Amino acid sequence: RVSPMAPIEEMKGLPNVLIIGDSISIGYTLPTRALLKGKVNLHRIPTNGGPTIKGVSEIEKWLGTKKWDLIHFNWGLHDLKYMGKDGTNLVPKEKGGIVQVPLADYEKNLEKLVVRMRKSAKQLVWRNTTPIPPGSKARYVGDSVKFNKAAARVMKKHGVPTLDLYTPSKKNMKDWMKKANVHYHAHGSQALAELVAKDITNRL
Questions:
Q1: What's the rounded Cα separation, in Å, for the pair 77 and 52?
Q2: Angstrom distance (rounded) from CA 86 to CA 97
Q3: Lateral strand order in the sheet of 70-73
Q4: CB 72 within 8 Å of CB 127
Q5: What contacts 115, CB < 8 A, 6 or more positions away?
Q6: Which end of the chain, N or C, is surrounded by fewer C-beta atoms within 10 Å?
Q7: What angle do CA 117, 202, 186 make, to 5 degrees?
């Protein structure tokens, strides 16, 4: 089975689109690529995009020297998760966990990332952060909303359009998403892929 992380073979003459994001986007990379086959060279970064701090340190490498027709990007679920003070992953605040990237830093980092990506892309699209189901470990219901509000300020300032995957995911949470988990069932990822593919097609 092809890995979503594997580099693709480009078809000449097609627009080059880059997906930057965490495991939610990893889940929809292959189905989106299948939907856009023959229309778009759909690339993705070869890793989990993680929090904005990883974005800031890796963005040069991810963008390379290419001029992208469109970059479809998200950071959020890793920024808002709680970690141990020693860096242990997913430590709830009740057990002394601290948020990986505080909201104000998240906003500053996104600002830097948007400014940098703009230099390498004809178009940018912000894909907002998907919801947190009740009971998710070391992530809290409502935090996606707060982080999306901060992101919306940055996008408004820079005139970057948003693809809203938060609202349909919230509406279809019980069907698309795993229980007490930010991740999606395969059919949920497929549903997201259809929204992403449609968005990319419309913008190009």
A1: 10
A2: 9
A3: 41-44, 16-20, 70-73, 124-127, 162-163
A4: yes
A5: 158
A6: N
A7: 85
